[in-house]
Structures are given as structure tokens and as C-alpha cells.
Amino acid sequence: MRTFAQDLRYGARLLARAPGFTLLAAGVLALGIGALSAIFSVVDAALLRPLPFAKPNDLVMLWEKGPEYAHNSVSPLNFQDWHDQSSVFSSLAAVSGSLKTLQTKDGPEQITGQAVTSEFFSLLGVNPIAGRTFTPADDSANSQIVLISEALWRSRFGSDPKLVGSALTFDGKPTTVIGIIPSQFAILWKSDLWTLFTVKRSPEQRHMHYLKVLGRLKPGISLEQARAGLAVVADNISRISPETNKGWGVTIEPLREALVGHDLRVTTLVLFAVVAFILLMACANVANLMLARGSARAREMAVRAALGAGSLRLTRQMITESLLLALLGGAGGLALAWTVIRVAPAAIPHGTIPAGLHFELDLRVTSFAIVITLLTGVLFGLAPIWQLAKTSVSNALQSGGSYSATSGNTRLLGAIATTQIAVGVMIVAGAVLLIRTLERLNQVDPGFHADRVLTMSMVLPLSRYPTPDRTLPFYENVAREIAALPGVRAASFGGSLPTNGWQIGQGFEVVGEPAPAQGNGPSAHYQIVGPQYFEALGIPLNAGRSFNDHDTATAPAVAIVNEEFVRHYLHGQPALGKHIRVQAMDPGGPKMVEREIVGVINQVKVEGLGEKQNDAEIYVPILQNPWYWASLAVRTSSDPYSMVAAVKKSIAKYDPELAVSDVRTMDEVANASIAEPRFRARLLGSFAALALSLSAIGVFGVLAFTVAQRRREFGIRMAVGAQVHDIFSLVLGRAAKMVIAGILIGTLGATVLARSLSALLFGVPTFDLTTFISAPIVLTLVALLAAWVPAMRAVRTDPAVVLRQE
Description:
Elements: H1 2-17, H2 19-48, E1 59-65, H3 76-85, E2 89-104, E3 107-116, H4 120-124, E4 130-131, H5 137-141, E5 145-149, H6 150-157, E6 167-170, E7 173-181, E8 193-196, E9 212-217, H7 223-240, H8 242-245, E10 249-254, H9 255-296, H10 298-306, H11 311-347, H12 363-390, H13 393-398, H14 407-443, E11 453-459, H15 468-483, E12 488-494, E13 505-510, E14 523-529, H16 533-536, E15 541-544, E16 558-562, H17 563-569, E17 579-584, E18 591-601, E19 617-621, E20 629-636, H18 644-654, E21 660-665, H19 666-672, H20 675-709, H21 711-719, H22 724-757, H23 769-795, H24 799-805
Parallel strand pairs: 3-8, 5-7, 14-19, 16-18
Antiparallel strand pairs: 1-9, 1-10, 2-3, 2-9, 4-7, 5-8, 6-7, 11-20, 11-21, 12-20, 13-14, 13-17, 15-18, 16-19, 17-18
């Protein structure tokens, strides 16, 4: 212990005497350790740490499995049958989105929430911080009750302890607050209130699919047993209701797998691997510095060996110095990780990290950082130890401090630089693939013109808008009022906005075509739009006409379809005048309405610019099928945000209690659909830039060290007639060998990385020729540029000076 303390003091003094070396090495390590620790916090939250619910391994998520898609939302009646007939779950709960308007003294405020069944919170093991949660007894009580989040309780109500049991006004109705849910709780999406959802035993509930279903397996029940049990229930339902359920089954997945998703799993693992490689490059650079420093200290070590210090004693001293340096880097890395973790949530696109998963610098991440710090200390400390083992004591003493590198040292330095180049090729190739993906996404034709369009959303409370007779006047009056505003070119309501991922599938039939088999009828995206919708969003008509004010409930039912609908379901025949029967959106239940096709448009991207599959789309007039939630699109002649106040005033004129939300331009809506690919491309691009820098530093360091050690050789060569280009070729030739070896190894590694990234690519092949050519070229140019300075230093060697020293 006493000797170890001496090693610590001696190592600290040596590092203090070389502040430049210490700061550079510790800084490079801090960058790698900090980045890896921050990424590990995400990996830990998403893939390793147990979900923040009671017995999380027993939790699963369920979908309806159709003929074409295995992850469909669940109809209320199917959920209720699963709940009542299955014997493999101790509990089943359903949840859907809910938007409520809270009336406050400051005006209406729209609150995002969830409508959940009574077993929802008990299934997840979530307890309120005050009051209670829902119980099965509430299903039959038919009372207006609500739970609110701790965040809303504190921000809106000042943590008032008397709020539980009191009434708030939601959607114009007095509603009793029965409990406060802790702010740490979130699942599927962030919510600030929860209302009770009760399934109604009516036939139309079999046709409507909008629920997400969670389940808790009974003790001893495996996932396969649960799948087999639900398959029996699904068969029973298909016999009872073949028109909706024939050929349909159930998909069951562990809750973590369902929440995290494939894209996030791939992204986190790839980023973790990339940053681990960057840390490896950082260690390689520090190893280069340690080797160069070790060569300068060769005589010191030889003297200590001559005075009786054994190899174990000298090795321990070197390891101690390396660990001291690693600890400095680790401390800086922890500070960097803490900073990144604090600022990252604001930089990560919304929805990238599932609600309920929190990454933080906790004990697990800190322990990981400490282990990585110690490992890196040992890793880059091995290089000078290996150098020490190869050093001849007599040669080092005779050199008088001008000891030259051995061929073994040169090979080790070359291997380190080659590794850095190989890693650089891998990371640059991955970044180029994601950047090219983003480039392809930006080139996608969305089917509309997003410039100068203001958008917002609203939900009409059913308590005030129970029937179309109440809903239609609001839509007509508001649209007319906004369209007449100065600076507005067109204004229209629509069910949803393009690229926002909100797809509504409704069944249909083509009149005159054979009827589809029960349960296997086609469906198309169903969009309810106002008369100026296509003008407001700049969607051109390919044929026919747009909707107008005469397409009312008493006029003939009409529809507009897209080219994909014509190609797939009308077999390319002229669409105008054709008739289709489409399932209307009706709270009273499914109702097939025959409509005449009066127009055809191009494909409009519904689920985002990156959707890889075209979908059939059917548009119907809002005056013929009004709905209680809607989006508003306003095309302006100037800055869209300059119209926000006037548009809100027009809405308040007809309903002062109605809250609007999600005020954005259409450009922002479209850009949000590629926010995750853009974030991935930028992040991996930043890591690629860092990898290029570290590769350049590595090549420069190796060649600078080699040139310094071979200065005597170069001087003698020039003295006996070697030309400048001969010396230049020697140095660049060594760089070329490292580059070629690194590119070959890196290209092989890049193929593995590209295959891992394949699910994240769009419009770019996994083995993209441009990528696999450009990445090696970039690394070659960077490496040769880094080699230029040492090569120029070599050719400037003065042979007379070298010979005088001899």
C-alpha cells in the first residue's frame, strides 16, 4: 500500500509537469467516456432497466391481427370479449386518446389525456399520490370522474390539497377529481388527465378500431400459452361476428418490445456501438501519446531498472499513471454525460423516446462510466508497458536520451493508426447512409404544397355538439369567417393533416365489383374535408372537380379518390362517374354510403414522408359527414403566424369556450414527420466528423513520432544522395500502407453496420455504391492530409546537422 501511494504521488507529479499532455489526453478520454455514458443511459432505459411498473415481465400488449397487418388497433367489443373469455390474463385494460377542454378563469385550455378502462392503473401497479384510481365499481356508477397528473396539479392548481373531491369543468360538464397520478408515470404517450372508458355492448362497437390493449399474464403463463389461449377466443368471435372478424386473430408482444419498437432498438444499439468505437479511437490516440512520451522516458526507465527496479515494479508505475490519467478523463466524462443528459430531451424529437422511459445519470450509469474509465486506463496503458518490455536497458543508457523506436514499436503504432482509419470508414459510411436517406426523404413529393399554410386542431365537445345539426353550422360559419380575413387565400377544415401519421381506415366496396369475402374487405384512408381543403393545402386535381358548398347532406353523396385507389381498385379504368360504397364515420354505428367519384388527386402522404407503401385514399365532403374532431388549414399570402390571433378570434366568435391546440405551419407538420431521420443523420454525422478528426490525429501522431525517431536515418540517406522525393515517398508510403489496410478492414465493418441500419434507410440500398466509394475516399484524403506535415518535416532534415550530432 505504501509503494502504491508512492506510485500515485510520483504519477501525479509527472502529469502535473506535463500539463499540455495531461489536458490533451484527459480531454480526448472525457469526450469518449462522456458520450458513451450518455448513450448508455438511453440503452439502459430502453433495453436493460426493468419498466417502471409492478412485475414488468408479466406485462404484454395486444393488437388485432388482420390479413395484411398484424398490429391493428382493437375494437371495444373485441376487447371486451378478450377480457371476458380469456383465462390466461389476470387483468386486461384498454386505453385510447382523449382531448378535454378545461374551463379556467384564463379561458379554455385543451388537455391531452387518455380514456382508460377501470383496471388500467391496478394492472400497471400505479398508485396515486392523493385520492384513488378507478375501480370496477365505477363502471356502473355512470358518474363524471377524472384523474389528473401531478404536473397539472402543481402547475395549474398550485398543489391544492383540496382539489381531490372537488369538481372541475371539462367540456362544459362538472367533473369530480378523484386522484392525482404521480408525474413519473407515463405510458404510450404523455397525459395530464385520465377519464373512465366503459365499453357499450352494441353491434357498432365491433366495427370501430381505436383502442390500445394492455394485459398482465397470470403467474406461470408463458407468452406462447397466452397466444394459444387468445387464438381460441378469436376463433369464437369470428364465428359470432364473421362479417367483421373472419380471418382475424390476435398479436401479443412483451410490453417492452411493443413500447420501444424496432427503430429505437436499432438506433440505440448502433449509436452505442459507434460511440464505443469512438472511445476506442480516443484510447488509441492516448496510446500514441503515451508511446511517444514513453520513448522520451526510455532512459529514465532504464536507469530505474539498472538501480534494481524489477519489471513488475515498473509496470505497476506505468499502470498507475495510466489510471490517474483515465480518472481525470472519467471525471470530465461524467460531467459531460450529466450535461448531455440534461439538455438532450429538448434536442431529441418528440416521440423518439417512448413516454415512461427516462434516461438519467443514476447509479447504474455512473457505475458504467467508472468501469469504462478503468478499462480505458488499462487499455491505453498497455502500449507503453509493451514498449517497456521491448526496451534494451543497455541501449537506452547508451543513447543518452535519444533512444530510437524499435521496429516493434513502429508496428504497434501502425496497427493503432490502421484501426482508427478502419473505424473511421465504418462510422463515415453509416453517416453517409443516413444523410442520403434524409436527402431522399426531402425529395419525396408529399402531394401538397406546404408553404404559407397555418394549421391547428380542435375537438368539439359532444355535450355541445351532439348532432350534425349543431356541428355543421360551426364548421360552415368559421370557415367562411376565416376565408374572408385579409391575407387569407383559402381556409378549410379536415379530419386530419397530411404527414401527421393519423391514418383512418374505413371499409368500402366498388359498386359493380364482386363482394369481398367476409372479414377481408378492403379499406382506404378516409378523410373528411371542407370545400376549400384542396386549395388550402395546394393539392392539385388530376381529373374532375373539387367539393363545393352545394355538396350538402341533401345533395347526392360524392367522393374524391387518389391515383392509387384508381390503379389498385378500379384497375386503371376512368374513375369519374364510378360509384363506391364507403363506411361513413358515424357515432351511431357503421353505415355504408354509396358515393359517386367526382375527382381524382395524386397520392398525399398520410403517415409521413418516409412511408414506403402507397395507400388508397377516399375524401368526402365535411357537409355530408361531419365529425367532432377536426384540423384547420389556412393558406395565407404572408407569414402564417401573423394570422394566428385573427383566426382564433374568428373561432371564439362562434364558440368562446372551444380550445384550439397544436398551432403550427404545414411546413412544420411535414418536417416533424422526418424529425427522427433528421436527428439520426445529424447525430451520426457529428460522430463521423469526430471520427475523422481522431483518425487524422492518429495518422499525424504516428507519422510525426516515426519521423522524429528516424531523423538520423533520413539525414544519412540524404547525405549519401537520396532526393527529397525519395524521403517524401518513404513517409507517404508508410501512410498509404496504413490507409489501405484500414480501408479494407473498415469497408468490411461498414457492410455489417449498413446491414444493421437497413431498417432505418429510405430510398437508399443497404450496400449503396456511392456510400462505399465516398467513405474510403474521404478517409484517404483526411489521412494523406494528416501525413503531409510529418512528410514535409522529414524532407527538411538537414544532413549536416545530423552528421555533426553523430
